[in-house]
Design brief:
This protein is of the alpha/beta class and 319 residues long. Helices cover 38% and strands 17% of the residues.
């Protein structure tokens, strides 16, 4: 049996981050070493609180939760309250939080964790890349302790925060630029593939049929997410972006990938934060990223439903 992949999950919960946490905690193919949080879908205080809430309702214990950057490397924080609501996890009602915050020095905590591991760790990032870029700049030696960085962000096509910029990259383009040029192997999971993971009525029915308090919370989260996606972008169902980063570690066949050159537009008047993906090698510059292209949606949703079912067996989630 193959040893599980050790991961640190850096996130900004966030409805889709919540499901990424559940998948990482539930599936034995990955070993969730820590959850670090960053400002993005909501302020840092709220994203750190939300990570703790998800661990509460999903019965996830023993995983350190740490908080990191309150804003990007440059400029003011960009918050996606219009998508995720005032709490960042609007929809369900959560009780008093029980899971503690392990550290308010998230970058320092992850630095020491990486240095202490016997084997390189995969860093999964589902929010702005501020924490990861800060870590790489402050402690360059840890680059050798990272097996690869898998991040949800960017697109080979259009954006969602601006016509060409996806939210996580738009929120901190300089951080994304540092990560992509760090020399650490990088996998980009962009909107072009995450928009193939639509949580439609069939998916909601499968989750709801589990009949557990946790499954009801998940349905409530996705129903709220569905409303904002319908109002803002006219989607018939919400795309579950973030868990794809974890799913491809569990089952590499979930997504097809290509190697390509990816650069971040840092100065464009109308395109700042865009991911410039050279799929056809028109620039002649060497590839620096693995880029997700096509999702096997059936395999993906099987992983999500199985994770919720697994956690439902020993969680005490209430709504």
């Amino acid at each position: 049996m193959t040893d599980p992949t050790p991961i640190v999950l850096d996130c900004d919960p966030g409805h889709d981050d919540a499901l990424a946490i559940m998948l990482a905690a539930a599936n034995p193919a990955v070993d969730l070493l820590a959850i670090s949080t960053v400002a993005g879908n909501q302020t840092l205080d709220k994203t750190a609180l939300n990570a703790r809430r998800i661990c509460d309702v999903a019965g996830i214990g023993g995983v350190p939760i740490v908080s990191g950057a309150r804003g990007p490397l440059r400029g003011p924080a960009v918050i996606a309250e219009d998508v995720h609501g005032q709490s960042g996890l609007d929809g369900p009602q959560f009780g008093p939080v029980r899971t503690p915050l392990t550290s308010a020095d998230g970058v320092g905590y992850v630095r020491d964790l990486l240095r202490g591991q016997k084997r390189p760790v995969t860093v999964v990032a589902t929010g702005p890349l501020t924490n990861i870029a800060t870590l790489l700049r402050a402690a360059p030696d840890v680059a050798d302790r990272i097996d690869r960085i898998v991040f949800m962000g960017g697109s080979t096509e259009r954006g969602n925060s601006t016509p060409y910029a996806e939210f996580n990259i738009y929120a901190d383009p300089e951080a994304a630029d540092i990560v992509l040029h760090s020399g650490v192997p990088v996998t980009m999971v962009g909107l072009n593939v995450t928009h193939q993971a639509l949580a439609d009525d069939t998916v909601l029915s499968r989750i709801g049929a589990l009949g557990s308090p946790l499954s009801r919370i998940c349905v409530s989260l996705l129903e709220f997410f569905s409303e904002t996606y319908r109002e803002l972008w006219g989607f018939p169902a919400p795309p579950l972006h973030d868990p794809i980063t974890v799913a491809l570690l569990i089952d590499p066949e979930v997504v097809t990938r290509v190697h390509a050159r990816v650069d971040i537009e840092l100065t464009g008047t109308h395109t700042r934060g865009a991911t410039v993906v050279d799929l056809y090698n028109r620039t002649g510059r060497p590839a620096n990223a693995e880029v997700a292209m096509q999702l096997d949606a059936e395999r993906f949703w099987d992983l999500i439903v199985d994770a919720i079912a697994t956690l439902s067996d020993h969680s005490g989630g209430t709504q």
